[in-house]
Amino acid sequence: MGRSQETFGKKDNEKKRAKKKTEKEERKAERQANAKAGQPLEEMFAYVDEDGNISATPPDPKKKRIIKDEDIQIGVARRTDDDNEDPVRNGIVSFFNDSKGYGFIKDQQTQESIFVHANGLAGGPIGENDKVTFEVEMGPKGPNAVRVKKASATPPPAPAAPAAPAAPAE
Known about the structure:
- There is one protein chain.
- This protein has helices at 8-34, 41-44; strands spanning 47-48, 54-55, 89-97, 102-107, 113-117, 131-139, 142-150.
- By secondary structure, the protein is of the alpha+beta class.
- The strands form 2 sheets. Strands 3-4-5-7-6 form a 5-stranded mixed β-barrel.
């Protein structure tokens, strides 16, 4: 004889579905029993006070402020480019793949990760954890680091002063 096609898992799932359905019907019946029928319209209103909080009491008309339409600003103000800002930034190479020619630099000022491509290198090859200076240009997919150079750890030495002539020996 053949065995039944229904397995234990199917029976168990069917029981869970039936239990959820009965629980849902019980919750619905409870909501209907607790519903206040014939509630006056004033009790269903909600008000927003001067601080933006929802309350059941209407706001005090003495605290009303008049706001001009021109003063309302929708959205975020556009950022103005500061000409005083130094375009050269400092950062540390967090990842660079020599074989594929790309990587990321973590900007020390803003802590954001900026994409760098081998075409944007100006001062020779770079590696991970190198300190670099770079400029940022917007590319089609976001900010790109360009004119990337390794930052010199120490400033270049000052030119040596000419030595004073030695005094003649007597």
